[in-house]
Structures are given as structure tokens and as C-alpha cells.
Amino acid sequence: MDLDRKLAILADAAKYDASCSSSGTERRDSRGGAGMGSTEGMGICHSYAPDGRCISLLKILLTNHCQYDCLYCVNRASSNVPRARFQVEEVVALTLDFYRRNVIEGLFLSSGIVKSPDFTMEQVVRVAQTLREEHDFRGYIHLKTIPDASEELLRRAGLYADRLSINVELPTDQGLKALAPEKDTAAIHRSMGRLKLHIDDAKAERRAVAEAPIRVLPGAATRPARPPRFAPAGQSTQMIIGADASDDRSILRSSAALYGRFRMRRVYYSAFSPIPDASRALPLKSPPLVREHRLYQADWLMRFYGFEHDEIVDDGTGLLRLDVDPKLAWALAHPERFPVDLNVAPRELLLRVPGLGVGSVDKLLAARGTRRLRAEDLRQLKLPTRKVMPFVIVDGHQPRQADLLGALPRSAPDAAAASASASASASASVAMPAIQMGLF
After folding, report:
1. 0.85 exceeded by pTM
2. Which of 23, 278, 342, 419 has the fewest Cβ atoms surrounding its Cβ within 10 A?
3. CA 137 vs CA 59, 95, 101, 128: distances in Å
4. How many CB atoms lie under 10 A from the CB of residue 162?
5. Over the stretch 200-237, which tens digit does the pLDDT of each residue have?
């Protein structure tokens, strides 16, 4: 099979993996003539980093052959799809070639499982090792790791990759047993725990070296070299939404546990897509994409706004509202907490006001250090006053009960449709195979 055909198959096969953000690592570049590649910069984009930068990543599978038969996976062993497999040297050559042509800024590499987890993981690690050691490639590398691979291979992977990820696959252990019985939640968590320990140990070693005194006396031992960083962008994971019966409350509970136990940088949510020749155990259609969008918003509330997972979905349905965002839904469900006086409220309470983001709260705290806030100050700070004003008190403004109507979206059906349309457009942009984007 020629290289173009392999690329078409394996770029398309990788589109279902959403966890390819490239933020959070150290800055490296090849300015000054040293090495090749960069962890920053602009290009023809495959994805957006969480901080808003457009990042172009060559996103492919090493192979879509797989010995596992997970019911939700288009590349499962029993699936009737075209198969292909790259050699290590082919992935290296493609990465370097596309970088030189200013098409990509880095590599996202995953793989089906062939022969054994260790055999597959060794091939994946060899790609990153060859790029780093033989070609001095300094761009971003994200490797999908195999849960059952040996600890030594996981350690080697972290020395060459900026980020490592292990997919938890489904929100609950029951769902994994039902749809992917060959996979084991305990094995996945063990690998996550090993990666966390390696990341913590590497940080501790670098901190100890940085704090060591510099010896300048004659005959004194030289200061030790800084140890290499281990996966400086940390680890992430992905779970499929809508393939099993897990509700949003259990999904957020699982995410909170992953953040707490393994200090995940990100948990990605991927809406289930119906696949050819699907099992009867799977739903016949995808969940609404706006549900995936709401889960990302709820995830943001847990990570940056001080919300606990069990208070975001606290009604009897176990599901997030689709017509309004989770923060507004929480505010509407807790009228006793509002209005909030912007001139005296602590930061943690300001973060719960609909329409106020982390940056906006920091601006408000800085502004009120010089004088009391007024309604016109919020407009000067370019805050979304239509969202904010029904929930706050400032000098010259006291909200009325009727103001809450102004905080609601146009109408539930219209808002849900608009969000679904936006999510569908974004997902289509990320999921579109690179071969269809005219890059190759």
C-alpha cells in the first residue's frame, strides 16, 4: 500500500480522538539554527489549544489494526474497515516533511493494539525517540499510551513526549465492562498512577537541582545537570459520552475523581458517533452535541470556578440543562445566593455570578481597590451586562425580579439549536481528516 493511501486511512481513523490539545508544555523553538520545530506558532490548524491558540498537529494512528473488539470503536477487530499500518520511519518522515512545509507544528500519535500492548507501545515510543534524538525535533509531541504496557515503556514515553494520555474510554466501570470487556478500569488507573508518580518525581528532582547551591570554590564538585522533564504538559484522558446510559452527574463524578487522584490536565468528552455494523447494545443515534458542550462548560466550572461536581447537577434528573449553560442553571436554581454585591463579595462568590469569568473577576477586584464600582464601570470593563446585571448589586443598581428574564436565552429550543449547530461546526472542523483539508 502506498504512503498516500495509508495516510488517508490512518488520518481518518484518528478523527474520533478529541484529546489533542497542545497547551501546557514548556516553550521550545529552533531559533538560532538549533534543532527543528516549535511548541508554539501558527499554521494550518487541526485543533485549538485551550488558551485559544491555533495549533496544527499531524494527527494519525500508527495502525488501525486492533486485537480488541470494543463495541463503540470503528477500528475494533470485527469492524469491516480498510486497514493500514505505518512503519516508524514513515511517521518520522511525514512529521518532518509536513513541518518543513509549514503544515504542522507537532504530532499527535495514537494506535490500535497489535501483537501486544508492549509491542505497540515500543513502536509509538520509537517514533518520538527518533524525532527527538536523531532529528532534534523540538515541536509538540502527544503520545497515546497503552494501559497494559510496561512501566519502563511508559517512563521512556514521558522522556520524549510533551503530553501523554490514556483513554478511560467510558465514564463508569460498568459501562466499560459492558462495551469493552477486554479492557480493565483497574489497569487504566494503574497506568495513570504510574505516570503521575513519574511526573511528580521529575518535578521534585528538577526542583532539588534548582535549589542546590552553586559551588565556585577550587576543587568543589560542579553543580549537577538538570534532569530531563517528564511529560511537561502532563497527562490527559478522554471518555465517550452517550454510548452507555451514564448520566451527566456520574460523568462529572468520574472526571472529578480523575482530576483529584491523578491530577489530569484535561478530561475530554467525545460524543458517541454511530458506527457501521454497530452492536445492538449501542444507541441508534448520537447524543445532542450540545450535551458535550455543556459537559465541557461544567468541567470548566470544576477546574477554575470552585464548583464541586455534585452541586453542578443537583436536580433529580442527573442531567445538565441543554437550554442554558451550567453556571446560569445553578444561579437560577439558587436564588437565595443572589444578588451579589460586587463591591464587597469575596472572589469565590464573584466567580459564581453568571457572565463573570476568571479574568473579569480579577479586573473587578483590581478596579474596586481604587473606588466603588458603578454600573457604568461594568460597561467600561466590557462585561456582558445583560447576563451580569440581574445577579449583582453595584452603586446605582439594584436588580428586580423581572431582570432575571433578561438573563435567560432567547428561548429554550432556539438556544439549544444554536448551541448544537455551533458544536457541530466545531466538531466537524476538528474531526475532518487532514487529507480532506487539502493539506496532503
Report:
1. no
2. 278
3. 17, 10, 15, 9
4. 25
5. 998 888 888 777 666 555 666 655 556 678 999 899 99
